[in-house]
Every structure is written in C-alpha cells, then in structure tokens.
Sequence to fold (500 residues):
Amino acid sequence: MSEANGSVVEIRDVSKRFPGVQALNSVSLDIKPGEVHAVAGENGAGKSTLMKLLSQLEKPSDGKILVEGKPVRFRNPRYAQRLGIAMVHQEFALAPHLTVADNLSLGREDSHAGLIVRGTEKRRARKLLERVGLDLDPGRRVSSLSVADQQRVEIAKALAVDAKVVIMDEPTATLTEAEIDDLFELIEQLKNDGIAIFYISHRLEEVVRIADRVTVMRDGEVIETLSKGDFDESKLVRLMVGREIDTLYPKEKAEIGDAVLRVEGVTRPGVLLNCSFEVRAGEILGLAGVVGAGRTELARAVFAADPIASGRIELDGKELSLGSPGEAIAAGIGYLTEDRKGEGLAMQLSVEKNITLAHIPGPGIWIDRHKERSVAEGRQKELDIRTPSLHRAVEALSGGTQQKVVVAKWLETDARVLFFDEPTRGIDVGAKAEIFKLMSHLAARGRAVVLISSYLPELTNMCDRIIVVRDGQTVGELKRDEFDDERIMALASGMEREAA
Ligand SMILES: Nc1ncnc2c1ncn2[C@@H]1O[C@H](COP(=O)(O)OP(=O)(O)OP(=O)(O)O)[C@@H](O)[C@H]1O
Ligand SMILES: [Mg+2]
Fold:
C-alpha cells in the first residue's frame, strides 16, 4: 500500500446533495485490507449513497476518494471495478437467464474483446466458484439457483475482477440462519485473502459479530467510528438514533375474539399442500419457517394472487371465492408483500399517491385531493417517513423508507385481516418498533394480523400464536406460553417429527 496509513480506500470529506436533500455531509472514513468495516445508521442516514459514490454509480458533490493512497477520478461503475471496488447487489444484478459462467465473465474487461473460448471460460468459472465454496456446474442458469447461491455467484463475480474492496449492502436480508453462517464463513475467508469488506446491515447482532470497525451515520454525517470491543448492540442503537429506545417489541394486550379468517386445506399443486390455520380478531398470528418454506405462497393464495386447486377460505364465517387481489382487498384482506419493488409500490409515483393507492375511494369516481394529502401527512408523521416532499417519487427514497410507505399504504385500508410479509426487512430499529406498535394497535382494535418473519425474535415477541410452515405445509402450532426457539427451528427445518 502506498499510503502511510495502509488504507485500501479512504473517503475524505465527501458530500452528496440531491435536489432537496443533503444525503451526505463531509463524510470521512477508511478501510484497510482484510478488514470488515460496517456502516450502521437509520433509514436514510446515507449508507447506500456512500457506497454508490464509492462504486461510482453516483458522483460526489464534494470531497475526495483515494484508492491505495491515490485520489481517483469519477467516471463510471466499470472504472470503479477496475480500481478494485465491487458491489454485491442483493437482488436482480445477475442476468438470470444466462449461465453462471456467462455471468462471471460479464463484468470482465476482456469478455467483449472477441471470441470467448467456452472451455477456458468454464474452467475459470469453476475456479472462482470454488473460492466461494460453490460446487455446481457453471453451465447452469442463474435462475435455477437459490438466493444464497446467487449471492455467492455475485461474490465470485467480484473476485473475477480482482476486487480489493467488496461492498455488501444488506446481504443477509433474504438468507436463512444457516445461510448467514455460511456467508460469514466466506467473509472470513475473503478477509484472509486481504480483501476489505464494507458491510451494511440493520441487523446489529450481525454487525457486532462480524465487524472489525463500525462507522455510525446519522442524517448524512459520521457520528463515530468504533473498533471491535468498543461497541455492542445497545451502544450502536443509541448512537444511531441519538436517543434510547425503550422497547423494540411493543406488544399490547388484546382481547382475542372470534375467528376472522379461517383457511382449510388450501392446496396448490407443487407449492402448497393441505394448509390450514385460523386467525382471530385481536390476534397476531406468526408464520414461521425457513426462506422458501411456502409462507409467502400461502399468503398469496389467501389474497387470491395465485389460484388454488382446492381448499376453503372463510372470512367472518362466510366462505369466499375470490378471483383477484382486488376482490380480496374489497372483501377485507390486506397483504403487505415482501417484495416492495415488484409488487408493493409504484416506484414512479409519489409517496402520497402510493400511500393512498390501496384505499378504494368511496362512492363517486373522483379522488379527494385534500383528503389524500392529509391522510398521507398523518401517516408520514406517525411512521416518520423521511422525505423532503410527499410529491417525491418513491424510487428516490432510501430502501427502508420505501418499506415504511408500503406499511402506510396498507394501514389506510379497512382490512379485517392483514398479512405482513417480512415487514421489517431493511428497516432500522426505530422504525421497526414503530411498525410493531402499529401492528399491535391494529390487533388491539379487533383486526386480525398475520406476521411472516424469518427473524425468530420478532415472532416470539409479537405473536400470540405461531404456525410453522415447511415444504408448503402447515406442520406445527405453538401458543405463546409454548414458544421455544429450538422447537420452532426444529419444526421449520424438519429435524423433528411433531409428536401427534
Ligand atoms: N437518487 C436520489 N435522488 C434523490 N434523493 C436520494 C436519491 N438517493 C438517495 N436519496 C436520499 O438520500 C438520503 C440517503 O439515502 P440512502 O439510500 O443513502 O440511505 P440509507 O442509509 O441507505 O437508508 P436505508 O437504511 O433505508 O437503506 C435519503 O434521504 C434519500 O431519500
Ligand atoms: Mg440503503
């Protein structure tokens, strides 16, 4: 390293202004070879923006970025890659219809220079895959891989361009516990190879576990950089939000009433088999299971987003036969999807429009703009949705802020039963507590709530009852006084046969 302090990347007094927002204000930090440097902060703190400047997706308004001691010019993401900075995107960055080998050579400079010798390419791919612990045929299509394996291919892609710094922005959002452990092992390995890793996650226990240093950001500024041993979860929370958060899981006591939704024997060939559960007024029901167990599919089936082959769905004692999500909403079923980009939000529309979108306007066809505005303002305040204007397109908001908009949108409906599918993914601690509080309020006012989460503490703290889903089947049920992490995990992974 040419620079005396041995940093592979140094960010010096970097600022970034977007219209109406100072996303970063004179930020300085550095990263050393073989170091995991975590960046923590609430939604909208500027974490992703900082990483976008590093990977040259966005241009800094001010300041300097040095790679191995030399100031770098701003050009484009390809140039950043050549400097050794690679970003591991969580989703959609690979070309799903291409093979693994093709994806691995896509980013490389020489791949478009002329003919690619297929055999060489495959051999090269195999070597890279080995380095990330993947034993699979490079000729396979990316779309046939699990999310975790796709992520490994992404990391392999970073290695293919000889990355010195790998950026991981919320890499564990869609991984199971076991896959997270595997990822952390791989990160250790990358560290040993001298690769520096920027790690962003809202799961602070991960940060504490893996980071050598943490930089906490708030409102576009660096609050503090701490070394291992000087931070724990509660200290990070305090620095992130600038105040104490009294409770992460504000569960209200609610009177549990009659069954609102009853699902019986719902089957969708190859996806769901004979699924049954009910949820009562005032109750929060948890759906536990590993990623891919079929919880989302079950919610989608109830919401009429997918057809079912057989089974019965009752709302307030009346059998439903729903043809579409629109009919489900009208009947009183709400579903907050886990995929906010794909289904949850209209990215080009304003925050205000998105919040009021799911609400079916009353009689008449015109929309009351004043009402729309005041509804949106109310929710903005309640959920602390940080945007300079409600007219701003949702796509310009930070990831977590987008998720808050999804929640706001569904709170506007009169749904009798609401499915929350991974509602806290990518959401900061303060906002998480807010969302749980709202969920709890809804239940306490007699609505039925179904919570899907891959993070067990959320379920065990917030739910009155938990149903475990595995391989498209409902395989177990636990009441609140029976909650037991190990038992739930065992049921979810099929390590235990439920005693009849
Ligand atoms: N392209 C853009 N145009 C306008 N404003 C933007 C743009 N990208 C980000 N911002 C704003 O910059 C600020 C920082 O956003 P950023 O995405 O960096 O936050 P973050 O810390 O990654 O948050 P999260 O935890 O929610 O992902 C936010 O106020 C966001 O709305
Ligand atoms: Mg972000």
User: Anything to note?
Assistant: Residues 18, 21, 23, 41, 43-49, 386, 396-401, 426, 428 surround adenosine-5'-triphosphate (ligand 1) (CB under 6 Å). The radius of gyration is 24 Å. Residues 111-115, 360-365 have pLDDT under 50 and may be disordered.
